[in-house]
Amino acid sequence: MKKILTLLLITLSIGALAQNEPEDFLKTEFHIERRTLVREKMPENSVAVFFANPVRNRANDVDYIYHQDPNFYYLTGYKEPHAVLMIFKEAQEGPEGNYDEIIFIQPRNAMAEMWTGRRMGITGVKERLEFNQVFNNTDFEAYNIDFSKFDKVLFYDFFNDVRDTRAEGDLFNLIASFKSKSGYPTEGDLTIESAANNLDMESLDQIMKDLRGIKTEDEIELLRKAVDISCIAQAEVMKALKPGMSEREVQGIHEFIFKKYQAEYEGYPSIVGEGNNGCILHYIENYKPEISSDKMILMDLGAEYHGYTADVTRTIPVDGKFSEEEKVIYDLVYKAQNEAIKAAKPGMNIGRDLDAGIARKIINEGLAELGIIESADERHLYYPHGLGHHIGLDVHDKGNYEFLEAGMAITIEPGIYIPEGAKCDEKWWGIAVRIEDCILITEDGNELLSDLAPRKSEEIEKLMKEPSPLDAFVLPELGEDK
Asked: How many helices (H) and strands (E) in the chain?
């Protein structure tokens, strides 16, 4: 009777899992095609091995929300931990016939699923992800595979940061079993030792860069949604922003809108810095309790929608009106960004052509004209980062940077940051501006994806005068009589 009830629970939960998911995830066919393309790019007589992301502990018995390794998700659609995927260049012979891929996943466990959520299990992976060779992760240690017969074993090297959960078949044991089976060196110089065997920890990353850097139509559709959600949040915050709010409250409005549109996560820790805090490029404390009416606030936030991450930054005046100094710096950054966006097309290099050749040149000439630096050739830290990066399953996504190609999705994000105490007139201190937009490289140019959030200073000021649906949202003060 107990066995029957367990089987019934498993069967019902597979159906519930399928019913609860949105319908616009990447289709199974996408992941199958991606595995085929990896196989085509692999060298002869080789195997590629991918591991799921580890579960990360937050504190004591509380873990962080699990997030699958982007490569693993890209190739499988599987979102659960403690799994390993192997893709073979040539078909392998097995007791149930030939196969060219195999996946080991965490087993069904009715008691565990009551606590931490439903699992797909072997049946779910076969039916929904269309793998033929599927085994429980507890079978990997005893699985008979001779890695020595391959000319190349492709994988990403390990960083020894995986906890032993003491559970049979967990990621810790999967990695240990792989190391043992593959002859992974346990001591000495791994680079030198691996050269003497068939372990290849470099080639796989280039294969994944080649694939993930060029987005398919399905991926672009998900990116559009992530970017649109992020831009709507920026626009709504422009209407809702009031002096006296906290940085964290501003962050919360953004993230509430993300969730309202069913974006599962933030693509990266949200950056909301008022005034001098905006000069910290990755300022994630967002802790200032009251933002000032005479400052600007830099807001760098991106929604992650079904795995795909936007990256949009706007810098706006807290009181709705740029000061003279703020507007000069803002418009300089806008000019640099706009010229770089107009020039972005296939064949261009982000660093040499768009950054050094356009955006950085405009910013340096502008800073020199304002007297903030002595000459346009002066080395300085007022613009300390690059102009852009790929976006996709990672906010800094895998992709090649030598030349832009049609199908690439990238950011264009120049900035100027003048911290308090800088070697210039005090009137510039505490001004930090970054404008970051997402573009899609097309056959003959590019498409601005993030046009739902105003970029021009005049357009920002105009939108900030509009009422917000949140104007009437007033909570009681803590400590008030109940």
From this structure: 13, 19
